[in-house]
């Protein structure tokens, strides 16, 4: 990726890899299954095993910072595959309904807020 460049408004800029994002292993209903695949050279020594499935993701930037930083607002969500949420005592009926909706529609797959805004608008306390 870094052997390329991009011309924007007459200015030629190098393409840089976003250094702190990577690909990952995938398992059934577990999109991030544990192993990471860096897109830049690192000291990582994890090996891919026969039969494993991976998402090889590349992320590039032109003319900007090549690191991603967490922002206050989150764009997508995903339940922790290893947590049994049936053992978590939720007392708020709206929180229970929200969790039931997430379980029914997405399970452990990723989702974004707009996919649940009709039944659970932003002003719903369970989403704040």
Question: What does this protein look like?
Answer:
This protein has 128 residues and is α+β, with helices and mostly antiparallel strands. The chain folds into two domains: 5-62, no CATH class; 85-127, no CATH class. The chain has one helix at residues 93-105, and strands spanning 5-8, 11-17, 22-26, 36-38, 53-55, 60-62. The strands form two sheets. Strands 1-2-6 form a three-stranded antiparallel β-sheet, with no helix packed on it. It is flat and about 55 Å long. The model has no long low-confidence stretch (mean pLDDT 87).
Throw out a few tags for this protein.
three-stranded antiparallel sheet, 1 helix, alpha+beta
Number of helices: 1
Low-confidence stretches: none
Shape: flat
N-to-C order of helices and strands: EEEEEEH
Strand order of the largest sheet: 1-2-6
**Radius of gyration using CA atoms only:** 19 Å
Question: What number of structural domains do the residues give?
Answer: 2
Quaternary structure: single chain
What is shown here, in short?
By secondary structure, the protein is α+β, with helices and mostly antiparallel strands. The protein is built from 1 helix and 6 strands; from the N terminus they run E-E-E-E-E-E-H. It starts with a strand and ends in a 23-residue tail after the last helix.
SSE arrangement:
Blueprint: E1 5-8, E2 11-17, E3 22-26, E4 36-38, E5 53-55, E6 60-62, H1 93-105
Antiparallel strand pairs: 1-2, 2-6, 3-4, 3-5
């Amino acid at each position: 990726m870094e052997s390329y460049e991009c011309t924007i408004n007459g200015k030629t800029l190098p393409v840089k890899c976003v250094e702190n994002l990577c690909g990952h292993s995938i398992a059934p209903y577990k999109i991030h299954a544990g192993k990471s695949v860096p897109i830049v050279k690192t000291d990582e020594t994890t090996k891919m095993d026969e039969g494993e499935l991976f998402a090889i993701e590349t992320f590039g930037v032109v003319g900007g910072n090549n690191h991603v930083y967490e922002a206050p607002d989150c764009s997508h969500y995903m339940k922790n595959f290893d947590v049994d949420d049936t053992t978590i005592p939720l007392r708020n009926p709206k929180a229970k309904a929200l969790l039931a909706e997430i379980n029914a529609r997405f399970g452990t797959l990723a989702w974004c807020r707009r996919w649940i805004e009709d039944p659970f608008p932003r002003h719903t306390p369970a989403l704040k």
